[in-house]
Design a protein that fits this description.
Elements: H1 11-32, H2 53-63, H3 84-96, H4 98-104, H5 124-132, H6 136-146, H7 148-157, E1 170-173, E2 176-179, E3 182-190, E4 196-197, H8 198-210, H9 215-227, H10 232-244, H11 250-273, E5 280-281, E6 287-291, H12 308-320, E7 326-334, H13 342-353, H14 384-397, H15 402-405, H16 407-414, H17 420-487
Antiparallel strand pairs: 1-2, 3-6, 3-7, 4-5
Helix pairs in contact: 1-2, 3-4, 4-13, 6-7, 6-13, 8-9, 8-11, 10-12, 11-12
């Protein structure tokens, strides 16, 4: 492709400036990482060589889809809302690098609570929720980098999105058809990308409150919407009937009123608490699932194959913002990482926290709480037969159950993390766990002593009862003898 001089206002010129900025940012982050991170001595032989930042930049330029570029002003860190945990993740990325971040956001197998992340002491399902509920541009970029051949084929045919239907993600295990492991996300975003402005999000929150189960809140919100010329209740009812082919029944309406209020209150608090300078909110990803192979992709009774809560939010957005042309992109999958997926994993993490990080934002509420297991083994330490057995166990019983079934193998897999800081973190976690175990042992010993003391007390009480009974018998005998002597 020939290089031509273009005006700074053209899309291509803007894209090149963005690429230059991304490349500069990547170089700055490289300077923050230890110099020996990629040295042969410190990298396990099972990991493919890392993708350089320059190669990544070129790869993004090759895969990038310009059709869905945001039409709004450029989004920056200063004017985009992100959850505090996302800020922690970004800081960790700057400090530790890509592979370390991918490994540290895994479940901490040494923690007292098995659902706590090793990097950020936060329940793992919340971290995975934040990863999964990002703005549409991020997930599109993940799609391009995870399915290279499919993305290129889509670009050649003019199909800007590959829709991953559940049927296309089926795998056969022991003669049974099941769903491939990973994280599945429904992306419901404006056709041009981007999220909602502060004003649009305020209208969205008001619409959710107008569907609340609380009468006072609902009436107040409906009055404000009517003044703006909006009749959300009738509009959403029309969209639901159009999408599902029927109205909601009584139980469904009650459930929706509760969830609408829950979601609205959360976003209303954010709108009140964040700085007035924040103008962009990534609300376009609002439903998803993850499968740890033990959990199957549960489809509801509707032909849309999406949770009813997600369907409801879609109807609200379609009614409020028809000009944004919200579109559903279905079932983007983030697969579990294995050693041979290290490059793809690095690419995914780069996209989550790298060039598109400012487009993030987060919708913390979701159709269902989910967790995604990450399965890794170390072929150079485990024989192939053991690896096959471990993978079979993972498929049959779920990724999260793997470490419970093979603790020794899990310890071997943990050794692939050569980073000293990671080991320090692990050792601190182990020491914390030992302290918990010691405290629990002390509690058990104290409980045992209390039980023994209780038994001794019961024995003494029984003896006292017997003694009192003997004393009573003696007293009765003495009184009887006294009465007899008085009679004579």
């Amino acid at each position: 492709m020939e290089m031509t001089t273009e005006s700074s206002s053209s899309p291509t010129g803007k894209r090149r400036r963005d690429d230059d900025e991304n490349e500069t940012r990547c170089k700055e982050r490289n300077d923050l990482q230890p110099t020996d991170r990629s040295s042969p001595a410190s990298s396990p032989s099972s990991f493919p060589s890392s993708v350089s930042d320059l190669e990544m930049s070129r790869y993004l330029e090759r895969c990038e889809n310009t059709v869905h570029r945001p039409r709004s002003e450029p989004v920056t860190r200063s004017n985009t809302y992100r959850h505090p945990i996302q800020e922690e993740m970004l800081q960790a990325y700057d400090e530790f690098g890509l592979i370390d971040l991918a490994s540290r956001t895994r479940v901490d197998k040494n923690a007292a609570d098995l659902l706590v992340s090793r990097l950020i002491q936060t329940p793992h399902y919340r971290i995975m929720t934040l990863l999964g509920q990002l703005e549409g541009n991020v997930l599109r970029s993940i799609l391009c980098n995870t399915f290279d051949s499919e993305a290129m084929a889509a670009k050649e045919t003019g199909n800007t999105w590959i829709l991953h239907e559940p049927a296309a993600l089926k795998i056969e295990v022991d003669g049974k058809i099941t769903t491939a492991p990973g994280m599945y996300v429904n992306v419901f975003a404006p056709a041009a990308g981007g999220g909602l402005s502060r004003q649009q999000l305020g209208l969205f929150v008001l619409a959710l409150l107008s569907l609340s189960k609380y009468e006072e809140v609902r009436q107040d919100s409906q009055e404000k919407l009517v003044k703006n010329g909006e009749n959300v209740e009738h509009g959403v009812k029309y969209q639901i009937r159009k999408m599902l082919g029927r109205d909601l029944d009584g139980k469904e309406r009650d459930d929706m009123k509760h969830m609408m209020n829950y979601l609205a209150v959360g976003w209303d608090d954010r709108l009140r608490s964040v700085s007035p300078d924040i103008e962009h909110f990534g609300t376009c990803v609002i439903g998803g699932w993850a499968i740890d192979v033990g959990r199957r992709l549960e489809q509801d009774e509707h032909s849309t194959g999406t949770p009813l809560f997600f369907t409801m939010i879609r109807c609200v957005l379609l009614h409020l913002f028809p000009e944004l042309h919200f579109t559903l992109r279905q079932y983007v999958i983030l697969r579990p990482f294995r050693p041979d997926d290290a490059v793809a994993g690095e690419s995914i993490v780069h996209q989550l926290f790298g060039s598109y990080v400012a487009s993030g934002g987060c919708n913390d509420e979701q159709a269902g709480v989910f967790e995604a297991g990450v399965f890794r083994d170390s072929p150079e330490r485990l024989d192939p037969e053991m690896c096959r057995k471990m993978e079979t166990v993972a498929i049959e019983h779920g990724l999260m159950a793997l470490s419970k079934r093979n603790i020794h193998a899990e310890k071997l897999r943990m050794e692939v993390y050569e980073d000293v800081e990671t080991w320090d973190l692990m050792m601190r976690d182990k020491e914390r766990l030992r302290e918990i175990f010691r405290f629990q042992q002390q509690l058990r010993e104290a409980a045992t002593r209390a039980i023994e003391l209780g038994a001794t007390a019961r024995q003494m009480l029984n003896r006292m009862k017997k003694l009192l009974q003997v004393v009573g018998d003696v007293k009765d005998t003495v009184e009887d003898e006294s009465d007899t002597s008085d009679g004579f």
